[in-house]
Amino acid sequence: MAMNAYAGGGIPIEDIKVGMSASYSQTITDADIKNFAGISGDNNPVHMSDEYAMASRFGKRIAHGLISASFFSSLFGTRLPGEGCVYVSQNLNFKRPVYIGDTVTASVTVKTVLQDRNRVVFDTVCKVKNKVVIDGEAVLYIPDK
After folding, report:
1. Are the CB atoms for 119 and 142 separated by under 8 Å?
2. CA 15-76-96 angle, 5° bins
3. Where are the alpha helices (DSSP H) in the chain?
4. 145 pLDDT tier (thresholds 50, 70, 90)
5. Where are the domains of the chain?
6. What is the pLDDT of residue 103?
7. Are strands 86-94 and 103-114 parallel, antiparallel or unpaired?
8. What is the C-alpha R_g of the chain?
9. According to the model, what pLDDT value does residue 10 have?
10. Contact 72, 37 (CB under 8 A)
């Protein structure tokens, strides 16, 4: 299926179909966690301290859940639907921790197209080694051409 972009660079809503999907993968590094803590202000020691995390139920440092969830935003803004779209809502269910060195694959799949409201509903999921670490649903606003 051809994906024709409009002036804003994204896919026009009339070309978005149920089942369309996009994915992005990234390996989480210590630098990612430290940079995210600096931006967000979340310096929870379960993310930042090896000693603290070792004594936690996780046994070692975990990445902030919103690092992985932010990959959805990357997909929406650059791939599907692309430039110009705006988040309306996102719900997230955190299923498993993500550790330093894990490769997270985020996927978004069109669930419903609400053309009369310029909105698209997506299923969102992040996996590590084929196990779901985050799932949820997002609603995006798609601007007119």
Report:
1. yes
2. 130
3. 30-40, 45-48, 50-54, 65-78
4. low
5. 22-141
6. 98
7. unpaired
8. 17
9. 86
10. no
| CA dist list (Å): 80 to 1, 86, 101 | 13, 12, 27
The CA angle 73-79-84, to the nearest 5 degrees, is 70
At what angle are helices 30-40 and 65-78 packed, to 10 degrees? 90
- Residues of the chain above pLDDT 70, percent: 93
For residue 81, say if its preceding peptide bond is cis, omega within 30 degrees of 0. Answer: yes
Q: DSSP class of residue 85? A: -
Reported as a single tens digit per residue, the pLDDT across 101-120 is 999 999 999 999 999 999 99
Query: Backbone phi, then psi, for 132, in 5-degree steps?
Result: -70, 125
**Mean pLDDT value of segment 37-57:** 97
What token pair was written down for 74? 């990357």
With 90 as the cut, is the pLDDT of residue 75 above it?
A: yes
Fold of 22-141: Thiol Ester Dehydrase; Chain A (3.10.129)
Dist CA 23 CA 12 (whole Å):
19
Average pLDDT, the chain: 93
